[in-house]
Design goal:
Layout: E1 4-7, H1 14-19, E2 27-30, H2 36-46, E3 51-52, E4 59-61, H3 66-73, E5 81-89, E6 97-101, E7 123-125, H4 126-132, H5 143-154, E8 159-170, H6 179-194, H7 204-210
Parallel strand pairs: 1-2, 5-8
Antiparallel strand pairs: 3-7, 4-8, 5-6, 5-7
Helix pairs in contact: 5-6
């Protein structure tokens, strides 16, 4: 297992913590970046492993066997990617689940009904990034959505679903923090289809935020 850490210039003591674990870190990339997806691209380019998983600063794996389960999926050499379920937890009390994202099995047509996998649970072979590209920095907060549309719907890479919670995410998020940001996110979602030469249904992009409503009631 290879740990690649990308730090965009934090001033909260992160680097002090990292120094204590230097022996277990393969790459530490420090310095300003052009946002979270630029940082992700740097990490992907630095990774030398067969499979790449991305864990954001406020996220953590649900249990100690998550990566073992991911590795088991990728023993099938025909699998290009996998994903699982995710729960949002209170920022102060991470034991309190406030929203549950049950992704469900993959179906190509579900993208047209506003579906997407939880990106923090999305593991992809390095060769897929090398063949089909990295995150598009022009898509704002929809960069992860665009990448998954590109990989799964446009190029139809083979994906597997792990039917359990893989990641806990602390509540927050730029795209949903206000109506203005939600409208901007919706416009970027539309561009994500356009740049890939794909055509959504008339209701696709409005179904995307609507699909989140049940997540507040379907707790694990």
């Amino acid at each position: 297992m290879e740990h690649v850490i990308v730090d965009g210039g934090s001033a909260d003591g992160t680097l002090d913590v990292i120094e204590r674990y230097q022996a277990d870190i393969a790459h530490l990339i420090k310095g300003p970046d052009r946002g979270i997806y630029d940082a992700m691209n740097k990490g992907i380019l630095a990774a030398t492993g067969d499979v790449v998983g991305i864990l954001n600063a406020d996220d953590f794996y649900a249990h100690g066997d998550v990566l073992a389960k991911v590795v088991e999926v990728f023993t099938d050499k025909t699998i290009d990617s996998c994903y699982g379920d995710l729960v949002y937890v209170d920022a102060a009390d991470t034991g309190r689940v406030v929203r549950s994202w049950h992704a469900g099995p993959y179906d190509l047509n579900r993208f047209h009904w506003g579906w997407m996998p939880p990106h923090p649970t999305f593991f992809v072979r390095k060769r897929v990034y090398e063949k089909y590209g990295l995150f598009n920095l022009n898509l704002g907060s929809a960069a992860d959505y665009e990448l998954m549309l590109r990989f799964l719907l446009k190029h139809r890479i083979k994906v597997a679903y792990i039917p359990e919670v893989l990641v806990h995410m602390r509540v927050g998020g730029v795209s949903n923090s206000s109506l203005k940001n939600r409208l901007r996110a919706n416009a970027n979602d539309r561009r994500a289809w356009e740049v890939n030469g794909l055509k959504p249904y008339p209701w696709t992009l409005w179904m995307k935020p609507i699909r989140k409503i049940p997540q507040y009631f379907l707790m694990p």
